[in-house]
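--- STAGE predict ---
source: upstream dedup step, 1 unique chain passed
mode: sequence only
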Amino acid sequence: MSNRSCFVDTPFFLLYLTNIQPELSDQIEQLLNSAQRGELLLTTHSLVIVELAWTLESAYHLNRQDIQRMILAILNTPGLIIKDADVLFRASYLYAEKNMDIHKAYDQAWMELEKINQFARFQFKPFPTMKLEELYTVSGE
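--- STAGE serialize ---
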């Protein structure tokens, strides 16, 4: 395995998955192939993948099951390290199968991993105060 590392961000995945600029998709595929051969280590973090899912749904109007398949393919990409991959795996399930917003699905998955079963939800009112709207208890599946 190479000691060369390269961070990849949301446009990396977005360009590859949508193929909206084929010449860039080809370059990205070359990087992915280099990573698969062990010549390069690609790395990213969960926020990139959450942003990707949100963009694919809101801007490209892909359905949740297709987005989930893309997330799972990314999580299983040889030569790509994703911080919090276990949280993303669970979040992709909650997102697609339980129809949760991707951000809330990630929060829920992270809470489960951390064994946190309550969260506070605040109603934001710009000025002058914020108040605790409700304290929620989360139950697992």
